[in-house]
Automatic annotation (TrEMBL):
PANTHER family xref list: FORMATE DEHYDROGENASE, SULFUR CARRIER PROTEIN FDHD
InterPro entries with a match to the protein in the record: Cytidine_deaminase-like, FdhD
One Pfam match: FdhD-NarQ
An example molecular function term from Gene Ontology annotations: sulfurtransferase activity
Name of protein: Formate dehydrogenase family accessory protein FdhD
Keywords for the protein's UniProt record, in alphabetical order: Cytoplasm, Molybdenum cofactor biosynthesis
Keyword set includes Cytoplasm: yes
Gene Ontology process terms (BP): Mo-molybdopterin cofactor biosynthetic process
HAMAP family reported for this sequence: FdhD
Length: 274
């Protein structure tokens, strides 16, 4: 089974002094997702929680619904790539309940890098058509939001070892942690966290908050909306498209969440104690 880190020897230069040192790095490897025996996607990710990654990816892409999945397992031979084979632990097979079908056309395989998962996807308009806006409520204390970031940091175990991973966490509005997941790709970390919620039958997440360790992109907000998460907050900035999408979707979007400070880009009415 793959680990999420690997040791490598690197050349370190410090104030003109050159030395060879051991460094711990985050692993990045392809994960191939199969749906009912058909390879539908390859995503570059950090190994670990791959079953959650597959579940979250298929769900947030609108390919499967909450009640559609029968089984999720690691499987055997790769169906993608001529002359290339992936190790079985890098392939996840998702089987739907008999009689259920994919909710989107998955005949076109696509590749998602760890840094960009949006390439080649449906338009923003199509996402709006297929996803309801967030319901009104709940409210959340600004103080509780800041404690969530405080809880996230010590749980980023692989980041602490490598400095190379993003994290996503889901809390309830009282500040109680549901799940933390890490990955070299920020959208993968979100998929893993939401996939956990799907597998553990915690969906919908309409009384919950998604916290991410970096900037907040449109895709992260879109994935949160599919899971009906009304509040998304990140430690860094939000993109203009993320802000626009959050506002149109009746969501609360927070950036620069650190040191008891934050920027509320959209949905400020949910944040109390401002």
């Amino acid at each position: 089974v793959n680990d999420s880190t690997v040791e490598r020897t690197v050349t370190k230069i410090d104030a003109g002094q050159v030395s060879e040192v051991h460094d711990t790095m985050a692993v990045e490897e392809p994960c191939e997702i199969h749906l009912n025996g058909e390879a539908v996607a390859v995503t570059m990710r950090t190994p670990g929680n791959d079953l959650e990654l597959a579940a979250g990816f298929l769900f947030t892409e609108g390919i499967v619904g909450v009640q559609d999945v029968a089984t999720i397992n690691h499987c055997g031979n790769s169906l993608v790539g001529q002359g290339e084979e992936l190790h079985p632990e890098n392939i996840v097979e998702v089987r739907l309940i008999p009689g259920r079908k994919a909710r989107r056309d998955v005949r076109r395989h696509f590749f998602a890098s760890s840094s960009c998962g949006i390439c080649g996807k449906a338009s923003i308009e199509a996402i709006h058509v297929n996803t309801e806006t967030a319901a009104d409520g709940p409210s959340i204390s600004a103080t509780v939001l800041t404690t969530m970031m405080d809880q996230l940091e010590p749980r980023q175990n692989v980041f602490a070892a490598t400095g190379g991973l993003h994290a996503a966490a889901i809390f309830n509005v009282a500040g109680e942690l549901l799940v933390v997941r890490e990955d070299v790709g920020r959208h993968n970390a979100v998929d893993k966290a939401i996939g956990y919620a799907l597998i553990e039958e915690c969906l919908p997440l309409d009384e919950n908050v998604l916290i991410v360790s970096g900037r907040t992109s449109f895709e992260i907000v879109q994935k949160a909306l599919v899971a009906q998460i009304p509040i998304v907050a990140g430690v860094s900035a939000a993109s203009s498209l993320a802000v626009e999408f959050a506002a149109q979707s009746n969501m609360t979007l927070v950036g620069f969440l650190r040191d008891s400070k934050m920027n509320v880009y959209a949905g400020a009415e949910r944040v109390v104690g401002k």
